[in-house]
Design goal:
mainly beta; nine-stranded antiparallel beta sheet; 9 strands; globular
Length: 134
């Protein structure tokens, strides 16, 4: 389905993965893991809903907690099968602080190498809050 602005809506590709925490230290509050995933090309690529070919991603994850602070991040690599796309690295990190039982504040830094040919490296920053209302 395409609206008047050219936006396409519908089911896209299916991403399947297994998250594996291979290190978990209660003493140091450090966790390490991996999250291998396969992108199954189930979307309608000619309509703009999917890559049209299988892809694979292998991210590594880390998290460290201390007092009211948490830092976590990941670094990974996408192997993409689509002709117009290229393989790329990506990374991100988040720093959060618990302000109260209902409020956490955080900042995220992320980036990736070019996903398409001729595009520059991308870096971004995001601020967010997590508020629980009961």
């Amino acid at each position: 389905m395409r609206d008047s602005n050219g936006t396409v809506a519908g089911a896209g590709d299916l991403l399947l993965g297994v998250k594996w925490r291979f290190f978990n230290s209660e003493k140091s509050q450090l966790q390490l893991g991996a999250y291998p995933q396969v992108l199954a090309p189930t979307g309608n690529h000619p309509r703009g809903l999917g890559e049209g070919r299988a892809a694979f991603v292998l991210p590594f994850l880390a998290q460290k907690n201390w007092e009211k602070w948490t830092v976590y991040g990941n670094i990974g690599y996408w192997w993409r099968g689509a002709n117009e796309a290229r393989d790329y690295f990506y990374a991100g990190a988040v720093l959060e602080r618990e302000i109260s039982e209902q409020l956490e504040l955080g900042v995220e830094l992320f980036g990736n190498s070019p996903k398409e040919r001729g595009r520059p490296f991308r870096v971004g920053v995001q601020c967010r809050r997590h508020l629980e209302i009961e």
